[in-house]
Write a structure and sequence with these properties.
globular; 66% helix; mainly alpha; disordered C terminus; 0% strand
């Protein structure tokens, strides 16, 4: 393989056996999987996405990108099998493109690349995420395409690349707000690339503009819906939920010190802590969850919403819920700013444990352990009944259960590989582009750690993209270190051959 071989010719050179194996294995294992799980996997949030698609709304509790995707597929066919098949194939192809890009630029050994290839083709979590009526598979697929584009910006920079990167970033942000820190990673990639200063500035500006436009569009949509200009009402509920985990563990100050606009809410919250003392003691020893968001009976957030609208029987329930977002956002910010150390101790620190060993949540049960579905799901997919007529014998997905430990292992392995890379000073011998890729991957891991632990509950489905990125990078780095220590100088080190030429 020559250093100037085009990516197309490189892929063609892999046609035997990798491309042919992929073309045969992907549909075959999907067919076998669907024989066991003929219906999609639903959870409570699935109905919210479907409802947004049915109503063609531009603002809801979740980002509308996945609902628009559902509508797009629904325009051509109401088949549930077609929808989940598209999700699965898109995920597999995005992962393969990512791994082929790693092979093209970083040139891992055959054994390592075979491990990565098998990991992509035979990964059971890909099957279950593809079969999920949730935004996860779609978001991970877009994230893989986006990080692949960033690698091309680092290894083969070209001015035209700023446009597909901005489009992918916009699509990601419309699908899930976890992409909130992605523009920082894109900025890092542009700064690491050898593009000209003006192109770098244009790329960074275009990325920020695409996100800004979507935020403005969403705020306008919410203002038209309920007269309140906000970006994400769920974000306000989430922030208040996080802050209450802190508030329930501190000695409460004199209530007269609370700002006037929070007096009623704060008073109700304090009474809730007293009346639910036993429950709160139990919560202190549990993993961080979203108790205050989803307990519609005991949560002070829901109690306050009912209090505010006790005489209003005409306003839509969703509008009532959404209108509380700014209030809870302000209250959550007030509590976090008042108790920053306690917030770190009682929310972020326990969440660090969840980051390394993420919760499985609902992913370990098919259809949440039931054969029942709701009316919206039946309408969307043209089901005749409100139950799944063909279901697996065992709803428990035991194959998913080891994933928290697997992800925890690769989190530690990734950090270990970075530490060894620095301590042994192999970055001095490596190509600059490889070092830049390591910085990019570590930058993503670090920002994802901060964002995830400070924002919300951590579940394995939220960490799959990082798992793919960091596990592959750690394996490649460890291979390089082992080969170098055994005096088999890998092609990534500067004395082997010059860096890949710019287009």
């Amino acid at each position: 393989m020559t250093k100037n071989m085009s990516f197309g010719k490189f892929l063609w050179s892999l046609r035997m056996p990798y491309l042919w194996i992929a073309l045969i294995a992907i549909p075959l294992e999907w067919l076998i999987f669907k024989l066991q799980y003929p219906y999609p996997n639903f959870r409570g949030d699935s109905a919210a996405y479907i409802q947004a698609a049915l109503m063609h709304v531009n603002a809801t509790e979740w980002p509308v990108g996945y609902s628009k995707f559902l509508s797009f597929v629904h325009f051509f066919s109401h088949s549930d099998t077609l929808l989940v098949s598209i999700q699965y194939v898109f995920l597999e192809l995005s992962a393969l493109l990512f791994f082929f890009t790693l092979k093209y630029f970083m040139k891992p050994g055959k054994i390592v690349f075979n491990i990565l290839f098998i990991f992509t083709i035979l990964n059971p979590i890909f099957l279950h995420l593809g079969n999920y009526i949730m935004s996860d598979a779609f978001f991970i697929s877009l994230s893989l395409l986006w990080i692949t584009q960033l690698l091309w910006i680092i290894y083969r920079p070209h001015s035209v690349q700023i446009f597909p990167q901005a489009v992918l970033l916009l699509c990601l942000f419309t699908v899930r707000y976890n992409a909130l820190f992605y523009p920082l990673i894109a900025t890092l990639a542009f700064m690491l690339s050898s593009l000209g200063r003006s192109i770098k500035i244009a790329g960074i500006t275009l990325s920020l503009m695409s996100i800004g436009l979507f935020i403005g569009f969403t705020e306008i949509a919410f203002y038209r819906l309920n007269g309140v200009r906000q970006f994400s009402p769920f974000g306000g509920w989430q922030l208040a939920n996080n802050a209450l985990y802190t508030y329930s563990n501190v000695r409460l100050d004199d209530p007269t010190k609370v700002p006037n606009r929070f007096i009623e809410l704060d008073s109700l919250t304090r009474r809730s802590f007293i009346s639910s003392e036993t429950k709160m003691l139990l919560l202190e020893h549990q993993s961080i969850r979203d108790y205050y968001i989803w307990d519609t009976v005991n949560s002070p957030l829901w109690q306050y919403k009912r209090y505010k609208y006790k005489n209003d029987h005409s306003t839509n329930n969703y509008i009532k819920w959404a209108s509380m977002g700014p209030v809870y956002s302000a209250y959550g910010n007030y509590l976090i700013q008042k108790y920053p150390i306690e917030y770190f101790e009682y929310f972020m620190l326990p969440n660090v444990f969840n980051f390394f060993l993420p919760q499985i949540a609902d992913l370990d049960y098919y259809n949440q352990g039931s054969n029942k579905i709701i009316y919206l799901e039946a309408i969307w997919f043209d089901y005749k009944y409100l139950s799944l007529t063909r279901t697996p014998k065992d709803y428990e997905l035991n194959i998913i259960k080891p994933y928290p430990l697997i992800m925890g292992f690769f989190n530690v392995l990734f950090l270990l590989s970075i530490i060894l890379y620095l301590v042994l000073k192999h970055y001095k011998k490596a190509e600059k582009t490889l070092n830049k890729s390591v910085i990019l991957a570590f930058g993503f891991w670090l920002l994802n750690l901060f964002f995830s632990t400070s924002a919300s509950t951590i579940e394995i489905r939220f960490q799959v993209f990082q798992f793919i990125l960091c596990s592959s990078m750690s394996i490649i780095l460890l291979e390089l270190l082992l080969r170098y220590l055994s005096d088999q100088r890998p092609s990534h080190f500067v004395n082997s051959y010059p860096e890949v030429a710019r287009d």
